[in-house]
Amino acid sequence: MSLLSLELPATWKGKTAVSWDSKEAGQPSIEWVTKLWGFVSTSQKLAVFDGWPLVPVVGSKLCRLHLSSHLIDSHREISPHLQELLTKIGCHCLDHSFPWKHAQKHTFVHKFTISGIAAIITSLVAGDLKKVKTLFENANPDERIALRGFLTAQMFGNREIVDPAGIELLKMLPIFEVFSQQSMEFCDLSSEHLIAPPDTNPVLLTRRFLKVSAIEDLKLAQALGARQLSPSEFYRNHVFTNLQSLSVEVRDEVMQQVLRDMPSLIKGDAQFSTVVKNLAFVPDLTDSLHKATDLFDPSVPELCALLDKNTNFPKYTNDSALVALRALGLRTSIDHDGVLASTRAVMGLSTKDPAHARSLGSALLRYLDQHSERFFVHKKSSMLSRMFSDDKHEEKMEAWLLALTNTPWMPTLQKPLADAMPWKADAEKVFLASANQVRPINDAWYCSCSLFILDGHVQSPDFQKALGWEKPVPAAVIAAQLVELARLFEIGDSQAGFLEVIVTTVPKMYRILHKVSPTEFPEVQKVLQGQNWIWVGGEFVSVDKVAFKCPVDTRPYLYPLPFELIQLSDLFQKLGVRSACTSLDYAEVLGTIAQKTKGAPLEAKVLDVVVSIIQFLSDNPSELHGSIYIPNDKLILTLAPHLVFDDAPWLSGSEAFRKQHQFVYPKISNDVAEKLGVRSLRSFLINATSQSLSLGIQSATAFGQTESLTRRLRNIISLYPEGPGVLYEMIQNADDAKATEVKIMFNTQDYGSSSLLSPKMADWQGHKGFVVKSFNIRCALELCSRKVVAQEVVSLKIFIHTQNTSNPLHNPIHNKHKTQYNTHILHPRIHILHILHIHASTYPTRNVQQPPAKQLSKHQL
Fold it and tell me: If DSSP codes are grouped into helix, strand and coil, which group holds residue 650?
């Protein structure tokens, strides 16, 4: 050993490895090293050489003969990539340029085996296998592949047995290539990694899958815990779940391969068929994915006529694919779900291809009508099956019908069947509608303004019942149709065709409304309120213009309910038609006419109606509230209090006089006019200056002494006995009043009674007795105690009427003469009358004493 210290640099002693350059001075030569190991091979113990780095290794190095030097006895045939890798991770491969043998060699040098390499790696990471990955950070792909090749050769070529510890170490080696879309990637097998079935499209594989290019690689991966998937498992768990992420080309290629391999896939996995049936993997022509059970066989012509070729049929149409798809449930006929698929196809095409959508809708309508028994008739089943399935069947049918009637697939008319037919506002723009918004053509006249009309025919009663068309059109819809018909009739021409439709259709509408349920009736009332909807033979009118009975024909203002509708009286009564027109109704008609005419003369036809109304109202004047309109002599409707009737023709003859008053229409009698509030011309004239008299003339008023004098005199007269005592009292009374003369007269002449203020005054026209007392004018004025405006006072006299009957003065008003008077009833047989004659400018003044003007100045008569 002392010789070694002479030959080797002193600094080498105790070092694990040193760089060796045989040509450098002070370092051993190749010849010396060769002779040394020739000598070592013959020595008994190698441990004596432990202190110096003497072992030549690859890389022009000398290593110490010790386990810590991580020496490995590699073969001459070792791959350069593997040798480089071993060097990078910290191994020292013996340089076989210096061969040597010794029995104790492998005590210090590891064999070139899996176990040897594993031992070195374990030593390098100090037993922490998690650090193994760091040893390979600088290893390139070729070096990793070389190590993997060495392991496969040892395990499956040389059949080296690796203990469990070695297996765990090998799992930590990052030498296994995985699938990556970028550069080569390697992983260890410390976590689960999978192996795809042979010939799998690499595009389908992720980093979880190992790339095994040889059978040895597969065996090694499996030996270290990697699992190779069966085709069915691979498709189920790693393809079907990622179909949406695949490109269309890759997806179609893979799924067609699945369909081709279906028999073998099902054979290896009994559940595979069930999984595929429930998988949306079949694309249509728009590349949307569907279950096979959702699509239809394109080889069946009937299906092609009812369905959308782009969305209801599979993209794969080759024979092998169709065979596999039929096995998976591809539909070869239309069932209930197929009908809904057709309706959805129609709805989907409605915006893209309206003409095609309409064509499909019409085809489906015809198909359902022809095969209604299959879809709409519930066949009876056995008792046992009904117990367990009928309830669910009914629920499914209800859900199916709901979807069928709520989907807009039915073709509709866009133009009305007739010019006069009411039409839904948006019908011209809508060509498809749901069944609950559509009615058949037979119902068009009952609902066309609210619902769409079917463009087609449904003959099957079962189909009609399923759509709800066996029931009448909803009452509120019919009500709206009535209103719209009335509106169109009012604004349009009354063509014979239109009238014919109204005459035949409207009564049917009324009959349907007559049967409406109580729950629907409020909605009908709401629709018809305030609208014209009752057909009265020539027009539509509202309920406020109709009554069951109209005593007066006042059309077009009030109408009797047509005879043919009387049988539906309950309906019209509920909707507001009154039993009969009342006086108030007719008075309102007069007001309506007055408002329309606006002061213009009435036309002859309207005048006849007005006169008829007035004649009717005069029969029951007490029913009226307020004034009514009556035509004047110029045929203009005027409120009754503003008119007078001519009961003094000798006054009304002059044109000047008629300008001062509005006279009632001459064909209206004085009695009728008076009952309806028109004033008497006579009463009007008297009313201007007098208070009420007890003559049955309500509008006349009296002047002069009032109740106090009457009350006193009545009590006095009633105490007188029968006989001439009353006359004596009158003479005494005249004397007290400073009368200058008293005359007692009796008149036996009878006077006419054709022109009186009141019929009661007729009794005054017979025999009479008078006591006449002449007064000084000033005393008379003081006695009268009432101001009377007059042109000229002619005379003042007090008449005491002693006739036994209680009746008024004769001839109080006659041509060109006015009399203002006051009567006090003193006794049933005696009347005191204060008569004040006021003449007009033409009144004769002969035999009349004129009072001085200055005496009249402060007594305005």
Answer: helix
